[in-house]
Amino acid sequence: MTNIPKPLLDDIAEGKCLPFVGAGFSLNAKLPDGETMPDWPGLTKILASAAGITASSDGPNVASEYERHFGRVQLIETIRQALKTDIIEPGKAQRAIVQLPIDTIYTTNFDLLLEDACGSVRKPYRSLVGELQMPFHGGPLTTNIVKMHGDLRHEEHIIATREDYDKFLEKYPVVSTHLSAMLITKTALFLGYSLSDPDFNHIREVVRSRLGRFQRMSYIVQFNKSASHIKKMLNEHLHVINLKIKKDISIDEALSNFFSEIQEELDAREGKKFRSRRPEIFEEISEEAFDGASRSSDSSALLSSSSNLCFVLMPFGGPFDETYRRLISPAILQAGLKPMRADSIFTPGSIMEQIRSAIQQSRVCVVDLTGRNPNVLYELGIAQTLGKPTILLSQDISDVPFDIKHLRIIQYSTEPNNLGISQKALENTLQQVLGYDRLDEARQLIEAGMIRAAVAILGVLLEHSLRRLFNDIEVVDIDGRDQAQRVLAMGKMVQLLQGAKVISKKETNDLRAAVNIRNRAVHHLEEPKKDEAEALFNYVENFIQTHLKNAEQRH
Questions:
Q1: Using alpha carbons only, what angle is made at residue 505 by residues 503 and 508, rounded to the nearest 5 degrees?
Q2: Which residues, 6+ apart, have CB-to-CB distance to 80 below 8 Å?
Q3: Are residues 415 and 458 in the same domain?
Q4: 474 and 362 in one domain?
């Protein structure tokens, strides 16, 4: 576990972190066997060898000499070949950083690895190159990648030679001003830079020229550094985050783990705040149990087990609001869940992280793919990564991306004659996803040895089944049914059902034993025994077959 500085976590959570990605970060790219990616010193050697000069000079001076010998076009082509642009793919580190709740990333790299990483996870992004593109930042869920030194699609903006660096402030005043303005309120996080890197020194020079003594403390990620080095860097206004690399782990893996740990901490923080703002949707669990559940490998199952939320991923406005009001929300309420969209959760802080938290804390997600909205597709990717059950909707099947067309999709219509059919289809699918689908999932988890996750899933199914019985059986008095809608405690529902003579004394005892097994896993994070999970499985399966199948036959 990395000792991530709390002030840095605070800045990331509040949208006040500005990462800078350097050449060393691209060393984590995926390449065919036998191929390597050069950093600045490696690129300098390639250029120096071709120009017949010593590589002891710094990179920009060597690039200037190369340009003098062979011209600007050949310089850029040599850089393009050296960076293996036709065969490189994003590594784990690139894919991990673009998923953090960070709206702007500055990079001095010429490659397109960050853009490709965004594409691989369906993250909306904008690549900003040169003065004219700087005003066109994307929306709150978009990652803006500022190519400070140009890229290989915009050769006219590439900064490589000594002359390019010396004229940067004069030629790119808008970029320089934007960078300085960002760093008035944001904290720099340097990734893939060495202290001798000309790009690193150029960024710091630009900042010093604009902010002087009022520049904020910066963070830099380095590897296996000594305590004396770390202390010395503080004098340079640099706080070193020292990642310990062992022989059996790559830098790509170490960075990916570092970003994952940051995300895990942010998830725990935001999840706690989200639940405190909407207590009526969640079963009350202790702070200690929540923290433990948020950081566990089976967090998705544990968090779902204490949630009554169905989070809806869809565009806003116009016909979509009508679809939500007339079709989606009523179907979710009929299933005994609480519907919510992103437009009802925004509070100060990172919008991106709030949406991720709502997905993580939900029991199931409903996704409207109509119009192929890029933000919705990205949020769907988050839900799938977090292991959330998802129900896909679309008015037009052609809006469904080809790589998910094999999944179950409800094609709906909001026409008056078809609205009821569409709503019933969604209700039935919700019941299936929350019902027998979960029973199959629990059986697979038990067989895979993931006992606590299986128990949590069975707890979700049991709570849902008890609630369905309140809707299907009319002998429970109105006050009791209202109470069950307000409170998620399963023990109380069992008591009400027994009092109404819906379940027998033996069933009551079995259900109380089942609730006890579930509560020890969810509230105390105990690891149940396999025979307890098997017993819970049998209790739940018998309850469904005895009561819900009979209820269905009456309808």
A1: 65
A2: 110, 152
A3: no
A4: no
